[in-house]
Specification:
Layout lengths: L1 E2 L2 E4 L2 H18 L5 E5 L4 H12 L9 E5 L1 E3 L9 H8 L20 H15 L12 E4 L15 H4 L6 E5 L6 E5 L1 H4 L4 E6 L5 H8 L19 E7 L9
Parallel strand pairs: 2-10, 3-4, 3-6, 6-9, 9-10
Antiparallel strand pairs: 1-2, 5-8, 7-8
Bound molecules: 6-phosphogluconic acid.
The site of 6-phosphogluconic acid has 14 residues, from loops.
Length: about 240
């Protein structure tokens, strides 16, 4: 079932396959050269990484991909909380990618230094906009129950949605965990932003945002609108249950 920029699938596995097929299509559209893909963290994309490793090994030109993270927890890469560690275990260890394609946040540095270094790395590796923002081909994002994305939480969204830097340090509102996050201008400079949102825990928030309810303004996700790129939503029927389309 699709409507403009909505891609709704029956369940989580179907959402993962729809996104994987979209990735193949985008790689084909960008006929040659590197493809810069920022991954989201958390639990939702785990199924995607598994399905890519199991069923898309032969369908994707893996060496064209360059992997980044929209946000990363400031923990060691072998920590169970590490977004990089999650993708390494579920995907990188199972497909033909090499370390030079994988651009993880250097979490051995203190958070502010890690954020600065990551922004410099992104600027060095990618084409950029006229005002110097790196341009990702595909920025895959999730949404937390509080409407956050990457590590732009409601409490600090005004700063991070307008921060002129490429990356900044954020603090998880509950755990106090320090994170490195891409800032709002970088997310909105992407050629395409794709939200992957599944489960009935996200139904209400997804509806508020996609139905453009006034209350949505206080959620960071509602402010992710690519300046010249595309915005697409990959939802399962549970998350999309109250979306009017
Ligand atoms: C992170 C993510 C974060 C995530 C949402 C949704 O590092 O946690 O990047 O923005 O996408 O919190 O997380 P779930 O998929 O676990 O619901």
């Amino acid at each position: 079932m699709t409507a403009p920029n909505l891609n709704i699938s029956v369940d989580g596995p179907a959402v993962a396959r729809a996104f994987a097929d979209h990735l193949v299509q985008r790689l084909n559209e960008k006929k040659e050269g590197p493809f810069f893909w920022a991954l989201s963290g958390g639990s939702t994309p785990k199924l995607l990484f598994k399905i890519l490793a199991e069923d898309y090994k032969e369908k994707i030109d893996w060496q064209r991909l360059h992997f980044f993270w929209g946000d990363e927890r400031c923990v060691p890469h072998n920590d169970p909380e590490s977004n990089y560690g999650e993708v390494k275990a579920l995907l990188f260890d199972h497909v033909p990618v090499v370390q030079s394609q994988i651009h993880a946040v250097d979490t051995t540095k203190p958070p502010e230094e890690a954020a600065k270094a990551y922004g410099e790395l992104m600027a060095q590796l990618m084409p950029h906009t006229a005002d110097g923002l790196p341009i990702l081909d595909l920025n895959m994002l999730g949404m937390g129950g509080d409407g956050h994305t990457a590590s732009i939480f409601p409490a600090n969204m005004n700063e991070l949605l307008t921060d002129p830097r490429i990356c900044a340090v954020a603090t998880h509102p509950d755990s106090g965990q320090k994170r490195v996050t891409m800032t709002g201008p970088v997310l909105n400079a992407s050629n395409e932003v794709a939200f992957l949102i599944t489960g009935n825990g996200k139904t209400q928030r997804t509806a508020q945002i996609l139905n453009k309810e006034h209350s949505a303004e206080k959620f960071p996700v509602a402010h992710i609108k690519p300046t010249s790129g595309k915005l697409v939503w990959f939802l399962d029927s549970a998350a999309a249950d109250e979306v009017e389309y």
